[in-house]
Amino acid sequence: MAASLSNMQAAMTRTTVSATQTAAGVTSSPSKVRLSAVVPATSNSRLHTSLLPNFVALRTDVRTVSRRGARESRNAGKVFASVNGTGSSPGLPIDLRGKRAFIAGVADDRGFGWAIAKALSAAGAEILLGTWVPALNIFETNLQRGKFDESRMLPNGGMLEIAKVYPLDAVFDTPEDIPDDVKNNKRYAGSSKWTVQEVAEAVKADYGSIDILVHSLANGPEVTKPLLETSRGGYLAAISASSYSYVSLLKYFLPIMNHGGVSLSLTYLASERIIPGYGGGMSSAKAALESDTRVLAFEAGRKHGIRVNTISAGPLGSRAAKAIGFIDDMINYSCANAPLQQELKSDNVGNTAAFLASPLASAITGTVIYVDNGLHAMGLAVDSPCVAKAASAPSEMSNVPA
Ligand code: NAD
Where in this chain does the entry annotate a coiled-coil region (predicted)? Predict the structure, then answer.
């Protein structure tokens, strides 16, 4: 443990740049919106022209990709055969030994990113983290002091080992994008090379390649405001930090992702259903993220054989969610109204991520996977005072709060 932490500490890179952000997940973000990160500077005609060669390349690659796809299918089959054929080991194994994962958006042990890191690690993957620069110091300190030791425990008795933590701010693609007020902000002092492009380059220099890319971050400075009261700046900041950040991550990491790799993000039901209180453009950002998941699945799938999926998670009392202000109510609501009346654990999402990252999911891409105890499927709040109990739930009525 001590060795792994000191390695990690030594591995952390530092510089002198800064920002106007404050920590808290979906909380705060730059006061100045980076329009260049949201809207491509190209005109429509330039955009079409620049895309053409890519689509030609996509078409010509098909036969090579088909052969690779067949090989991967056979490998997935071997996973079953090695278990069921011998009968020596019951169940389906998720074996990610030899795989390397980069997980963006881990700054404590309470959120989905941490649980995903644990599940991938338990399956044998090597873990690299990207931690938001303003949250890096406290995360590093807590790790060193052993504050997360209990939650680093894995089901097999091992511990989550983090090979390296990279400072990251996914709102900025390249050093040229960083405005002076961010450069001079003391919360960025001491860290360096934290734009998406630089982090991808650093991972390439350190490890050569990755197999799994996870985006577990969101930020909406006006999340507590209704959409009608959200400013243009707040709306675009939410999209930049919570949606385009994923496009950017995949864009810069794709060249170092091994063929057959996997990319995942986290989304929320507010993208497709009205969730009053999840404001500031965050619902729009999640809708964009889900739409981008489909388009990126096509582009990254054709070009590099990469699968792209997003997990729509139920409510969890993470640091980011606490910033929204009503997460406890949402958890209670889910327990009262979802088909499965149990509180969502971050491990539920972690285990799904491990499955999606494994060959067992080798034909799943471009999809929103719900891990929410089934809440998304409900069309009626069964605990509403407007609903008669007898009509609301045919069984297990004793579990439904009065
Ligand atoms: P979390 O606080 O553990 O994770 C959010 C992370 O985003 C934090 O580590 C924060 O430091 C990081 N971050 C914010 N801005 C960043 C930036 N510019 N660059 C890099 N990192 C940045 O909270 P969480 O709830 O586990 O959130 C993870 C993902 O899950 C988010 O996409 C969130 O929208 C999604 N989600 C959460 C819930 C929930 O109820 N908690 C439900 C559905 C989906």
Answer: none
Verify whether residue 370 is a known catalytic residue: no
Q: Which atom of ligand 1 is nearest to the CA of 321?
A: 41
CA 396 to chain centre: 34
User: In this structure, are residues 125 and 103 in contact, taking their beta carbons and an 8 Å threshold?
Assistant: no
CA–centroid distance, 113 to ligand 1, in Å, is: 8
| 66-70, 233-237, 312-316, 369-373: range with lowest mean pLDDT | 66-70
Question: From its phi and psi, is residue 82 left (phi > 0), alpha (psi between -120 and 50) or beta?
Answer: alpha
Q: Choose, from 244, 268, 333, 370, the residue flagged as catalytic.
A: 268
Phi and psi at 33, nearest 5°, equal -80, 135
Q: Check: pTM over 0.85? Answer yes or no.
A: no
Question: How many CA atoms within 13 Å lie on the side-chain side of 226?
Answer: 4
Does the active-site annotation cover 278? yes
Q: Does the CB atom of residue 170 touch ligand 1 within 6 A?
A: yes
The tens digit of pLDDT for each residue in 157-214 reads 999 999 999 999 999 999 999 999 999 999 999 999 999 999 999 999 999 999 999 9
Q: Tokens 């998304």 belong to which residue? A: 376
DSSP 322: H
Residue nearest to atom 30 of ligand 1 (CA): 266
Rounded to an integer, what is the distance from CA 153 to the centroid of its chain?
22
What are 262's two structure tokens?
């996997």
C-beta of 105 in contact with ligand 1 (< 6 A): yes
Kindly state if the Cβ of 212 falls inside 6 Å of ligand 1: no
Which of 103, 27, 111 has the alpha carbon at shortest distance from 316?
Answer: 111
What residue's CA is closest to ligand 1, atom 34?
Answer: 218
For residue 240 and ligand 1, the question of a CB distance below 6 A is answered with no
Overall average pLDDT of the 242-266 stretch: 98
- C-beta atoms surrounding 114 within 10 Å: 24
